[in-house]
Amino acid sequence: MKKDFTWKKIKSETKVVWAGETKSFPYNATQPPTVNSVAYTYKNIDEWMAVAKGEKDGHIYGRNTNPTVQILEEKIALLEDAESATAFSSGMAAVSNTLFANLNPGDRVIVGKDTYGGTSKIFLEFLPQFDIDIAFCDTTDINAFEKEMNSKCNLLYLETPTNPTLKIQDIKTLSNIAKQTGSLVVVDNTLATPINQNPLMMGADIVIHSATKFLCGHSDALGGLVCGDKKNVEKIYHFREINGSCLDPSPAYMILRGIKTLALRMERHNENALKLTEWLSKHNKISAVFYPGFSDHPGYDIAKEQMRGFGGVLSFLIKDELSISKFISSLQFAHAAAHLGSLETIVGPSKTTSHVENTPEERSQLGIPENLIRCSVGIEHIDDIIQDFDQALNKI
Question: What structural domains and CATH numbers belong to the chain?
Answer without folding.
Answer: 7-259 (3.40.640.10), 263-393 (3.90.1150.10)
